[in-house]
Amino acid sequence: MGGNILQSQRNMLNSLRTFLGRKTAQLRLCLKKSPSIPVNCLLRPGKNILICLPEDGNTAETLELLKIELNPLNIFVLAEDHQNIAEFPLGMKVFSLSEKGLSLLCLPKGSLMKEVRKQGIDIAIDLHWRFSLPSAYLCAYSGAVLRIGFYSPQVHRFFNLEYHGRGFSPEAYRELIRFLGKINAFSHR
Q: 75 forms bridges with which residues in the sheet?
C-alpha cells in the first residue's frame, strides 16, 4: 500500500513539473512575435527540416517519405536516446534527447537548444501524436518559420500549423508528410 502512495506522489510531481514547464514555455513563446508565413515559398526545396520522432512507428519509412515529398537540403532528427538510429536513412544529423537532457520543468537543456538553433531550421515537424513538451518546445525554439504538430489542446503557441488526424495510426505520419508534399507541389505550379 505504501508503494501505491509513493507512486501516486511521483505522478503528481511529474504532472506538476510538466504543467509548470508548459506554462513557462508558452509564456516565453508569447513574448516572441511571429511573422506571416508565405505559403508559396515555404516548402520549396533547399530547406532545413527538423523532425521530432516519437518512440513508436516505422520511422525509417517516414523519413524516406519526407526526403521524397519535400526534397530538403538537410534533415535533422530529434530522437529519444534509446531509439535505434542505425535504421535511419544516411545523411541525417541526429540529436538525442534523454531524461538527463531535461530541466526541472521538463524542457530541453540549453546545450541541445543552442545546437538545434544554430542549424538554421526552416521547418520543424513534431510527430508525437500525444503532446510532448520537450519536442514541442524544441520545435518552437528552433527558429523555424513553419512549426507543425498534431492537434492537442496544449499546443497553443508551440506550432503554427496543427494537423488534425483522423485517429492515431502509423499511417497518420505518412498522411501528414504526403499532405505537406501536396502543398509543396501546388506551390511550385
A: 49
Q: Render pLDDT for 33-52 as a digit per residue (tens, 0 to 9).
A: 666 666 556 666 668 999 99
Torsional sign, CA 83, 116, 35, 132: positive
In single-letter form, the type of residue at position 23 comes to K
Would the CA dihedral through 147, 105, 16, 55 be positive or negative? positive
pTM beyond cutoff 0.90: no
Q: What is the pLDDT of residue 177?
A: 87
Residues ≥6 apart with Cβ < 8 Å to 45:
70, 71, 72, 73
Q: Is 152 left (phi over 0), alpha (psi -120 to 50) or beta?
A: beta
Pairing, β 146-150 against β 93-97: unpaired
Q: Supply 130's cell numbers.
A: 500525444
Q: Flag residues of the chain having pLDDT under 50.
A: none
What are the grid coordinates assigned to 126, written together? 513534431
Position of cell 526545396? Answer: 45
Residue 32: the pLDDT is: 65
Element (H, E) at 180: helix 170-187
CA 112, 118, 119 angle in degrees (round to 5)? 95
What's the helix, strand, coil split of the chain in %, to 5? 45, 15, 35
Residue 107: Cβ-neighbour burial (10 angstroms; 0-12, 13-18, 19+): buried
104: CB partners within 8 A, 6+ apart = 17
- C-alpha cell at position 11: 505522478
